[in-house]
């Protein structure tokens, strides 16, 4: 099983642990270019997957390639074929409180890219449409570190919002919220936290000595978290 297949299995394991069985329907937020996670969920027994994105990124040829890698012998010549297979691709689309209900909702390293005001609306919508659990993996790190080894994964904590704004472009946007912020926002949306965890990185001296004022009130384990997971209902 590849990494994206493992992500799909982890979501279904979360559901099985807290609800039981396999969800009949799953909503994935930020489904990406090849819809590999929704395809893997169908392979694992989910009857219907709604793949939602605010931008229409998916391409049929990439979806077909992902299906071939998962050994699903299906031919996807149109978006109707994908719908017939059990995956409803909705993009551009923002989840709303009046959308159809699903057994489970999820995202993988997506929520950190959502501005705070939109995140509040998204969590309220997920609370309204999710019958079972919602499960999310979040990357709390500076995403510039992915392409530049000279950049610390916690580098962006040195910058105030004003200083950070020129670097926070549309394609690289991160909200810089910390794990405790997400827990608070989930609870404010009406969720009960079932499981939560985070893992902290090691901040270099220039980050430790030069934290932007807005980050100084956080506990170190919270502030320096680079990964987190939240499961709620």
Topology:
Elements: H1 3-18, E1 25-29, H2 36-43, E2 48-52, H3 60-69, H4 79-85, E3 87-90, E4 102-108, H5 116-129, E5 130-139, H6 161-164, H7 179-188, E6 193-200, H8 205-209, H9 220-223, E7 225-232
Parallel strand pairs: 1-2, 1-4, 2-3, 4-5
Antiparallel strand pairs: 5-7, 6-7
Helix pairs in contact: 1-2
Features:
233 residues, 9 helices
Question: Could you explain how this protein is built, in words?
Answer:
It is a single chain. This protein is an alpha/beta fold. Helices cover 33% and strands 20% of the residues. It has nine helices and seven strands. It has helices spanning 3-18, 36-43, 60-69, 79-85, 116-129, 161-164, 179-188, 205-209, 220-223; strands at residues 25-29, 48-52, 87-90, 102-108, 130-139, 193-200, 225-232. It has a seven-stranded mixed β-sheet with strand order 3-2-1-4-5-7-6, sandwiched between helices. The longest helix is centred in the N-terminal third of the chain and has 16 residues, at 3-18. It is globular and about 55 Å long.
Instruction: Output the helix-strand order.
Output: HEHEHHEEHEHHEHHE
Strand order of the largest sheet: 3-2-1-4-5-7-6
Distance between the termini: 28 Å
Q: How would the global form be characterised?
A: globular
What is the strand content? 15-25%
Count of helical regions = 9
* Number of extended strands: 7
Indicate the mean pLDDT. 94
* Main beta-sheet annotation: 7 strands, mixed
Q: Percent range for helical residues? A: 25-40%
Secondary structural class: alpha/beta
Which residues form runs of ≥5 with pLDDT under 50?
A: none
Radius of gyration: 18 Å
């Amino acid at each position: 099983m590849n990494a994206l297949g493992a992500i799909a299995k982890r979501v279904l394991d979360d559901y099985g642990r807290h609800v039981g069985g396999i969800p009949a329907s799953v909503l994935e937020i930020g489904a990406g270019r090849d819809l590999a996670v929704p395809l893997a969920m169908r392979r694992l027994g989910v009857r219907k997957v709604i793949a939602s994105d605010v931008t229409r990124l998916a391409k049929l040829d990439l979806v077909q390639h992902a299906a071939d890698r998962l050994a699903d012998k299906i031919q996807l010549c149109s978006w109707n074929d994908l719908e017939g297979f059990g995956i409803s691709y909705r993009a551009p689309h923002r989840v709303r409180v009046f959308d159809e209900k699903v057994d489970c909702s999820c995202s993988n390293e997506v929520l950190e890219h959502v501005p705070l005001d939109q995140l509040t609306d998204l969590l309220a919508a997920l609370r309204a449409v999710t019958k079972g659990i919602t499960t999310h993996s979040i990357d709390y790190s500076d995403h510039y570190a992915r392409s530049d080894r000279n950049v610390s994964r916690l580098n962006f904590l040195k910058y105030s919002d004003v200083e950070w704004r020129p670097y926070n472009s549309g394609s690289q946007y991160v909200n810089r919220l910390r794990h405790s912020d997400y827990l608070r926002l989930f609870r404010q949306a009406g969720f009960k936290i079932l499981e939560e965890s985070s893992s902290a990185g090691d901040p270099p001296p220039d980050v430790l000595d030069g934290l932007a004022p807005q980050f100084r009130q956080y506990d170190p384990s919270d502030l320096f978290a680079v990964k987190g997971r939240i499961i709620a209902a």
